[in-house]
Amino acid sequence: MTNAWVVATIVAVIAGVVGFFVVLRGSAFPAHAIPNGAFAGAAGASLIGVNTLFGLGVFSVLAALGIGALGRRGRRDVVTALALVVMLALGAFFLSQTTEYEPEIFSLLFGEVLGIASNEILPVAGLGVACLATVAVLYRPLILSSVVPDIGEAKGVRAQRMEMAFLVVVALATTMTVPVVGALLIFSLMIGPPAAARSFTNRPPVAIALSVGIALATVWASIAISFETNWPIGFFVGTLSAFAYLAGRGWAAWRRTGAPRAVPSESRAPLVAY
Question: 240 is in which domain, residue-wise?
Fold first, then answer.
């Protein structure tokens, strides 16, 4: 349980921070496709007897670079879909060759936070620090390229380079979160809390902090409920993330209808905050 709380806390912080930019940039589809590439890497690493974190990292980065490079010359949604199909095919092939028992495969797909070993905490923490440091360095260019790309280009921010760099950040976040929430549900943690936070506020620093807070509440509650009910943690992560988003949309709707005077000042906040 100690390992579960520590790793889940790290994962929630990273998912909240990186997920804010995923939502801001409209990159939900790549954020869904890259974890599936990571799943294939984990299955391949398990097949050859290598640490699954290594396989996760290699395949998630390859998927991110492939989507970023090929998306520059073609439709991004088509390239992302093809990458998703290829990675799923590889994952299916690797799993067909393995002799691992069913719970091992289940944990790769849906996560197994209560099965985190002590020797996995340090690598996850290292990847988390790398993600946060990269986001801190790229914060202003990412904001510019996400919100006002024309102004960003004028200031020397190359949109394609930002896209590649950001996808690598998503790959690093994927590597550390798949063992906890699984390849099929990681995007719920990276999309639900950040999207809910953006419904409550348009100010980037506040939205990021709120996104992290919602993600922390989601994983902590999911661990506790999963431990008590013996149901998969991924179910609760996905459900609570969806509830958080619905609550955010409900708040936004109430603010538009019930507090109309607050809307104009809030709507002007993004340009000042960015």
Answer: 2-273
The residue behind tokens 């590597």 is: 175
256, with CB counted inside 10 A (0-12, 13-18, 19+), is exposed
Rounded CA separation 243/237 (Å): 10
| Burial of residue 228, with CB atoms counted within 10 A of its CB: 0-12 exposed, 13-18 middle, 19 or more buried | exposed
Q: What does the block give as tokens for 14?
A: 């990273």
Residue 34 is predicted with a pLDDT of: 84
At residue 112, φ and ψ (nearest 5 deg) are -155, 75
Residues comprising the chain, all counted:
274
C-alpha neighbours within 13 Å on the C-beta side of residue 177: 38
Residue range 175-207, pLDDT digits in tens = 777 766 676 667 788 889 999 999 998 889 999
DSSP for residue 120: G
Closest-CA residue to 38 (of 12, 16, 64): 64
Structural domains of the chain, count: 1
Q: Return the CATH number at 137.
A: 1.10.3470.10
Quote the pLDDT of residue 104: 62
